Amino acid sequence: MEYEKDNNYIIILVIVRDNIWSKLYQSWRNAWKGIYSVRHGYFGVLCNSVEELISGSGSKGSV
Predict the structure, then answer these.
(1) SS3 of 47, please?
(2) Is the pLDDT of residue 1 over 60?
(3) HEC sequence for 25-57
(4) What is the share, in percent, of the chain residues with pLDDT greater than 70?
(5) Residue 58 in this model has a pLDDT that exceeds 60
(6) Gap between the Cα atoms of 37 and 47, Å rounded
(7) What distance in Å separates the CA atoms of residue 5 and residue 10, rounded to the nearest whole number?
(8) Range of the domain at 20
(9) If phi over 0 gives left and psi between -120 and 50 gives alpha, with beta otherwise, what is residue 16?
């Protein structure tokens, strides 16, 4: 009986943990969507330059 209780507890923990992770992931993605939708002003320029840096270094690294 005790073993069964422990199993249920572990299952609940896993479900809760997965829910927290998916919520974090969703909010992170939404934040990035918000950043990418802002293409005006310094923030948009900053995002573009960072994007170019990342893609530039990536192409150099693969050659």
Answers:
(1) helix
(2) no
(3) HHHHHHHHHHHHHCCCHHHHHHHHHHHHHHHHH
(4) 63
(5) no
(6) 10
(7) 9
(8) 2-62
(9) alpha
